[in-house]
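For reference, the entry.
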Amino acid sequence: QYVAKTGPGTAIDDLTRPMFAEAIPEQSLGCDSLLYSMYSIAALHQACGAGDGAAAAVSSDVHRRYLAMALREHQASLQDITADNVDNLCMTSSLLRVCAYAMLQTRPRVPYSPPSEWLLISGTAMALYEKAWDVAKERPDSLAWKFLRSPYAMADEGHSGEDKSTAFDILLTREAGDSDPWDVESQEAYQQALCFLGSVQCAIQDGEPEGHICRLLVVFPMVIKRRLFDLVNAEEPRALALLAHYFALLSGFDHMWWIGPGPAQEVMAIAEELSTHVRWVPVLRRPIEQVNAGSKAYGRTSSSAAG
């Protein structure tokens, strides 16, 4: 399942296909956390394509069992990051992030609660990458060096040009009745995140390659400030509205199995959650329109799904 379908179908484009389709299966033979992550994501891929029947339930059980084993082994390995294990740690973390995105498709949303598990896995990944870079930066021929350059390069690109947040200025507007946190730390968290999303919007408008845009979006939850994590988890309406704008952009990649309908479902669930907040209903019009437009936003249709 992994070698024939999941690995090749998980790659964003030709740049990442060798890692998912070739390097990870080869490296997994000597790394339990990577092997269990492969099993987990392969089973999750089967579950996502099996509907709601008995086969999907069995695959979901297998996915959860191996995910727990992968997390256990991964956490143990994080205690000592060395030149010998840094490649495996980075690849395991990458598969766990893919799992976190794919799990958005199956998580319950009634009553609505923020995707805390997705945020936690993404935030933990960036903490790992910062430590791993200290080891990998002296090894430019390693898989870890090549892999880690991408998040840092994407983060730098997303942070350049403060004017790029203008497309999302509606999320920074304060009105007389607003009572949500607006201290300096909160403002900076919102501005940084919206500047990043503005960069993505510019890339889309400039006709950048689809793979480049998708990588930017996947990096987003890794580079936002901890304060924004807290605001989302506290279910602050402004933070949830920002998340809806992010997921609306990501929904254009629903042709990829591990993204699928999850982002669109998040947008609609957030819209329903905030539907009684008159203040925020207009703010959500744009993400709802993007979701309704579907994957046409990037010139693709769901029938072109890989893997």
Summary: The chain has a mean pLDDT of 87.
